[in-house]
Inverse folding.
């Protein structure tokens, strides 16, 4: 499932200068495409020691690379949840000449449009519908029942702890966003 999310708060939190360093992370409205998938299918092939995460709540971790501050994914704060949101710019698309829409399908919905920093494009997907949830909740439950939340590159298999110590934002850090 692919969603279009306005997540400027998350991106700003990890210090990305979008206009200069990462022009492909955010769209003109300040949103980004996030692909929801099972953690057990994510393979990180290099620099896993450079992964860092921060916590904006006790439920979600935002993962990024320390070296270039590229956003990686959003995960639940515990390892058993069967879905993660991989940020589109982190996906290796060089091996595949297809566009994001061709490879993943068009976005199914938009989330957090109140965080938009500019007008949404006229072709922006609609907010999530009840039907979307009805179609995807059984799929997610199946992923969980079949153990597809494991292994995960974001949590230690033995201790179940995050592979990086989450940085919890202080109230002043949060206020400066």
């Amino acid at each position: 499932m692919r969603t279009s999310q306005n997540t400027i708060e998350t991106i700003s939190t990890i210090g990305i200068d979008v206009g200069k360093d990462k022009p492909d992370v955010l769209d003109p409205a300040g949103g980004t495409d996030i692909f929801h998938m099972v953690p057990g299918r994510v393979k990180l092939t290099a620099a896993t020691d450079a992964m860092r995460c921060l916590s904006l709540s006790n439920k979600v971790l935002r993962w990024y690379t320390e070296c270039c501050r590229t956003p990686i994914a959003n995960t639940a704060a515990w390892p058993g949840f069967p879905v993660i949101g991989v940020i589109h710019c982190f996906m290796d698309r060089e091996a595949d000449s297809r566009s994001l829409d061709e490879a993943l399908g068009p976005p199914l919905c938009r989330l957090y449009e109140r965080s938009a920093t500019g007008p949404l494009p006229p072709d922006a997907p609609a907010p999530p519908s009840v039907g979307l949830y009805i179609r995807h909740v059984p799929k997610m439950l199946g992923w969980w029942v079949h153990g597809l939340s494991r292994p995960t590159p974001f949590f230690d298999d033995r201790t179940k702890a995050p592979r990086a110590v989450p940085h919890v934002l202080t109230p002043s850090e949060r206020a400066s966003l």
Q: What stands out?
A: The chain has one domain: 2-175. Residues 130-145 form the longest helix (16 residues).
